[in-house]
Amino acid sequence: MEFDLPLIWFGIIIFATLMYIVMDGFDLGIGILFPFIHDEDDRDIMVNTVAPVWDGNETWLVLGGASLLGAFPLAYAIVLEALTIPLLIMLLALIFRGVAFEFRFKSGAEAKPFWDKAFMFGSITATFSQGVVLGAFISGISVSDQQFSGSSFDWLTPFSLFCGFGLMLAYALLGATWLVKKCQGELKTTMQQLAKVLTLCLLLTIGLVSLWTPFVQPNIALRWFSLPNLYYFAPVPVLVLACGWALIKSLNRDDNYQPFLLTLGLIFLGFSGLGISIWPHIIPPNISLWQAAAPDSSLSFMLVGALMIIPLILVYTFWSYYVFRGKVTKDAGYH
Amino acid sequence: MFDFDATVLARIQFAFTISFHIIFPAITIGLATYLAVLEGLWLKTANEVYQQLYQFWSKIFAINFGMGVVSGIVMAYQFGTHWSAFSAFAGSVTGPLLTYEVLTAFFLEAGFLGVMLFGQQKVGKNLHFFATCMVATGTIISTFWILASNSWMQTPQGFEIVNNRVIPVDWFQIVFNPSFPYRLAHMTVAAFISSAFFVGASAAWHLLKGNDTPAIRKMLSMAMWMALIVAPLQAVIGDFHGLNTLEYQPVKVAAMEGHWRNEGDKPTPLILFAIPDMDAEKNHFSLEIPGLASLILKHDLSKQVPALTEYSAEDRPNVLLVFWSFRLMVGLGLLMIFAGLWSAYLRRKGSLYSNKHFLRFVLVLGPAGLLATLAGWFTTELGRQPWVIQGLMRTQDAVSSHSVTHLSISLGIFIVSYCGIFGVGYRYMMRLIRKGPGIEVVTSH
């Protein structure tokens, strides 16, 4: 039997991206929620809920980049060159917030407010840039003769900026429901209130992005609104609404785990909507994943490792989350 | 010396970001192993000194690791943003190697780091030790893959070129390319030396301040044993690495030696000092020892080392930079070997912890391992120029098509942010080191 190696690798990269969005999503979300929480102890608790796991979460971003380079070198080269500016902004923002995890606790009282701000603005900027990257990617990238042929600022459109705001809402909701799971008392109540507002805003944003996307790319309109596709894809928006409704109910019930799980569901649905829109292009709107794929000798070499090791990674990642399970209290940090 | 065109700016940015980055993994590799040894010794001997040192160095390790992660993500994306032609051409080889590094090393390090730093009350002692060992193993595996990738760019094999793209043919040949074993050994040992002098200088500082505690003494003692053993070992590995370079990248060796031309069958001298002049194709103010380069590189006084003028000017690296970065590395290496030998002498005499001259010398050598590592990388990377992949792709053909303005702005932002952030991180590390290992027990943690 012949395996469609490019397709398998496309699947693995989608999986890595989804893992990244979900896992770094909630720890970036915590930074986005900083403006709503002023108490220093509460901020320490928020950071301590993710301090043991954030390195691992961010590693999925590295896996996404590395496997895109290995499996689809052409897509890596063209997409990254086209999106250099928002990507560099994202990388710098990730540096500021990443070092803030350690620096907040080791800087001493006088510099801590600075690193709080670095964590907050770093998280906000990194998320916004990722949203812009996503929006610009959906809108399509100019390619001629297998090279990027647009300009440095092609990514800067109202649609991509709107996607930036949309992703901030999504990560903030992930962060809020994560904190509902990990915190107690007043902090938890605050997060439940915030999560409700964020859910409504996010549903509205998903709606707007869905309506807007077809206008950005005519191909996408054709994909969604032609028959019989419409019947197959109609469940996606219905499920989004159902998920959002269940999320609000669950927050009202004071559940611990369900709000976070339902947010994951919401993110997953939004992501699959994106997948339906761009399939099978790895450089929208014209270059398919098969055209951009690396030779089979690269893909099969990588696949052996991926199939053996990714399950192992999931096991010890799960174990690490299990070790740090339960509510985080004021004195939980090691600092 | 340079026109600041797009290629040069992109190269400066790459050199700047990777130079900052490599400092963190170099220390991470050494410290992770050191921490695993400390914890193992603590479990075996129950000596509290090891436990104190573990607590102390794990905090410094945490800061260093965080900075390594965030500066490393930049590297994984910079290949595409700034070197898109290189990525499109050779991503089929470097991409899978990088992917293996992420899968087998980065996840292992990051996955067990949380338990290592925050999990002492959450898991049993043995499981915690296991987590530390996994982090240390991850750092070594990471070295393996990234050096396979870099070495392939120095001595490529196991591929063919179809439609102007590299097609991997034999992965065993690609990974175990001719320069890989030497480079891997050289860099791993460099990381151990860098960390040994980092730790040793910290101990020396405390002893000079009069903080003479069992933990501080243990720190200096372990660091100096390490220096005594691995610094001379590094010289031997370096010699083998040099012979390998002579075989596969002779023009790089010619530049390292500042050797312009062979006259008659006169053996090649070793140049101690010179200002190489690329336009005039000669050295100014040259101070040389006759025949020594032939002896070191050929192990034979009747054989000559290849000379720069045997290669056309467009295929030569920047001789001035390669020549001097190589000398900086070797010079620092000799000083570190001397420190190791001196420590052995003082240890025999029983004044290792009290000889002020020695302690000051070790303190000054604190950054020597890191500087030598950087100088070595400058030698090998600049020495490969004008190629990004030796013989296959020139650096000027590898770069993305960004404008000079764009590249200047992004380079400026990187320089300011890196110096700011990592400068502050360095200050926090120094502040922790000044505090010194305290009498901490696990429960107060």
Return Rg of chain B in Å.
23 Å
The quaternary structure here is heterodimer
Strand order of the largest sheet of chain A: 1-2
What is the annotated CATH architecture of chain A? Answer: Up-down Bundle
Helix percentage of chain B: over 70%
Q: Separation of termini of chain B?
A: 54 Å
Number of domains of chain B: 2
Q: Which CATH class of chain A is shown?
A: Mainly Alpha
How much helical structure, as a percent, in the residues of chain A?
over 70%
- Uncertain runs of chain A are none
Number of helices of chain B: 13
Number of helices in the DSSP assignment of chain A: 14
Shape, principal axes of CA atoms of chain B: globular
How much strand of chain A? under 5%
Any overview of this molecule?
The complex is a heterodimer of chains A (about 325) and B (about 450). Chain A is mainly alpha-helical. Chain A has one domain (about 5-325): Up-down Bundle (Formate dehydrogenase/DMSO reductase fold), CATH 1.20.1630. Chain A has 14 helices and 4 strands. Chain A has helices spanning about 5-30, 40-50, 55-70, 75-80, 85-105, 110-140, 160-180, 185-215, 220-225, 230-235, 235-250, 260-280, 290, 295-325, and strands at about 145, 145-150, 280-285, 285-290. In chain A, helix 1 (about 5-30) packs antiparallel against helix 3 (about 55-70), helix 1 packs antiparallel against helix 6 (about 110-140) and helix 3 packs antiparallel against helix 14. Chain B folds into 2 domains: about 10-175 and about 415-445, no CATH class; about 180-255 and about 305-405, no CATH class. Chain B has helices at about 5-45, 50-80, 85-120, 125-155, 170-175, 180-210, 215-250, 250-255, 290-300, 320-350, 355-365, 370-385, 405-435; strands spanning about 160, 165-170, 270-275, 280-290, 385-390, 395. The termini of chain B are far apart. The chains are: A mainly alpha (about 325), B mainly alpha (about 450). At the A-B interface, helix 3, helix 4, helix 5, strand 2 and helix 14 of A face helix 2, helix 3, strand 2 and helix 13 of B.
